[in-house]
Every structure is written in C-alpha cells, then in structure tokens.
Design brief:
Layout (H helix, E strand, L loop, with lengths): L17 H13 L2 H52 L7 E5 L6 H7 L13 H8 L5 E9 L3 E8 L4 E7 L2 E7 L5 E4 L10 E5 L5 E2 L2 E2 L4 H12 L11 E7 L3 E6 L5 E5 L3 H17 L6 E9 L2 E6 L3
Parallel strand pairs: 1-3, 4-7, 7-10, 12-13
Antiparallel strand pairs: 2-3, 4-5, 5-6, 8-9, 10-11, 11-12, 13-14
C-alpha cells in the first residue's frame, strides 16, 4: 500500500523558505575573506585622505598666521617710522567761531602745539578739554593732511544776565536762550544784556539750567518773547526784569523810568497787550506822562498811572 502524501506542507517543514535562503547568502558573502579585505582597504584609503586634508589645512593656517604677523609687524614699523618723520608734523592751525574765547586759550586747553605729529594727536581728548571752557558749548577738530588742524568752536550765545544773591555775595552770570547758566560775567566782557534780579538762591535753578516753572522761568519767558524781534519792545530796550514773590514779574525799560508790573501768569498774553499799549503811547507821544503800568490790575484790564502835574 502506497504511503499517504499530504497536499500542503506545514510551516517550517521541507525546503527552507526564500527569506531564509537570502539571509544565508548574505551571511556567506560577508564571511568571505576577499570581502573583508576590500572593506579594510577602503577604510584605510578614507583615513589617509582625511589625514592629507588635515595636513593641508594645517599648512594653510600656519601660512596665514605667518602672513598676518608679518603684515602687522610691517605696519607697526611703518607707523613708527612715519611718527618719527616730519611728514605729518603740525604746521598750521585754523580756528573758527570763537568770539569770546581767545585763540591762545583754545590752543592751551587742547594741548595743540606746533610740531606735534597728527598721527598720534588725540582729537577726541582735545575736543573734550577745550569744551571745558565756560563760554564754549562744543568744539569740532578735523585733521587736514598732512600738517593742518581745523578747529571749529561753537560758543554759547547770551540772552541775558542773572544776578544770583548768595551768602558769600552776589554773582552775575550769563544765561543762554535755553536757560543754560554758563559763565561768570567779567567786567571786560559784553554787558549790554537785560539783567534778571531778585534770585536769592540757586534753589530756583535746576543744576545749571533755569527751570520750567516759577518766577525765574516766567522772567525768561518774557525775555524770549522780547528776543523775537518785535520793534516796540525788543530785547535791547529791556534793562531789568525783577522777580518778586510779592509783586511777581516787574520789568524796567532802558529809556523809561517807570515800572511795568507783569504779574505772575499769562506772560505771553500780557506781553502782546503791552506791545499794543506802548505802541499807542509812543504814537500819541504820551509815554513821558506814565508813572507805572500794571498789566495785572484786573482780569482783562490794564492800569496806566500818570505822573501828577
């Protein structure tokens, strides 16, 4: 009797499957001696190429450093040689913009001397030192090669003088339009400016600047309005502006003896009203009859007192 042969094989029985045979073939190839030697030779070639590349980079970096060091040393020696030469020695100094400061003062403050080498001259330090002068706001210095310095000075422009009463005495100072108190008044300097009086201490000043509030600030507001160029009450016609806690702002003109009481507030409006009033008095030739003018008499009213005959 013939044996029974099943129609289907059980998994894993009989000949090995396709996946098993592929794994066996790959394992055999990898285990061949020739394959192993090929992989080793390829790794050696890659390693050799990397070493050659590193040597080239090292040589390039070394050459670059040597070149940089050579250029730096050469530049330093060239600078030293130029510094000792006479090519860039200062021979000419041009100073512009100074009106109150003398040229000798500017040269001394900036350590500007004939023969100094422009290559080593410190422009920034010279500008800072010259700007310490009380009349100088700022200064600009420019080299004009090979042997010239151009110095441009920007001085403060006075608007008025302010008399500050201190315990040790009085001090008269210049003030610019921005309210900067910048220099003590010297008798030899220009004194043709209005004087603000009644300032009893520097407490009414913010550092070296006039504050934006208080009677002193209102006094300088009046002066700024007068500096606007109005022909009736220009700045040149104002002799004194007194600040008084009891009376407010009191103005005195150069060519008239009577006081003008401006009060405490609304300085801009009252200045315009004063211009209109004085224009009428001048036109009618009645200015000589005036004893005082009170711009603060009442709201919207002005009191003009006349001299009794």
């Amino acid at each position: 009797m013939a044996g029974y042969k099943p129609k289907y094989r059980q998994p894993g029985a009989g000949r090995p499957g396709l996946l098993s045979r592929f794994r066996s073939a790959v394992a055999g190839i990898l285990q061949r001696p020739g394959r192993s030697r090929g992989l080793t030779q390829q790794a050696a070639v890659i390693d050799h190429q990397q070493k050659n590349r590193f040597r080239k980079l090292s040589r390039t970096g070394t050459l670059f450093l040597l070149l940089a060091a050579t250029l730096s040393a050469g530049g330093w020696f060239c600078y030293q040689a130029l510094e000792r030469s006479d090519i860039f020695r200062l021979t000419t100094v041009s100073i512009q913009g100074n009106r109150m400061t003398r040229q000798a003062q500017i040269l001394d403050l900036g350590f500007i001397e004939q023969g100094v080498n422009l290559l080593s001259f410190d422009v920034g330090l010279a500008e800072e030192r010259i700007s310490r002068h009380s009349w100088i706001d700022r200064v600009e210095i420019a080299r004009s090669w090979p042997s010239t310095l151009k110095v441009t000075v920007y001085e403060y422009q006075p608007l008025a003088m302010i008399n500050i009463e201190k315990e040790e005495g009085q001090g008269l100072y210049y003030v610019d339009p921005q309210g900067k108190v910048f220099a003590l008044v010297d008798d030899s300097q220009d004194l043709d400016f209005p004087v603000v009086t009644g300032v009893t201490s520097t407490g009414e000043l913010t550092g070296t600047m006039i504050g934006d509030k208080g009677l002193v600030a209102e006094a300088f507001q009046f002066l700024r309005l007068a500096a606007g160029g109005n022909p009736i009450v220009p700045l040149q016609t104002i002799s004194e502006v007194n600040v008084s806690p009891e009376k407010g702002i009191v103005v005195y003109l150069v060519d008239q003896p009577f006081p003008i009481y401006m009060g405490y507030d609304n300085i801009s409006t009252r200045y315009s009203q004063l211009v209109t009033l004085l224009e009428r008095l001048y036109r009618k030739k009645k200015i000589e009859e005036i004893k005082e003018i009170r711009m603060d008499y009442q709201e919207g009213r002005i009191l003009v007192a006349k001299v009794e005959s």
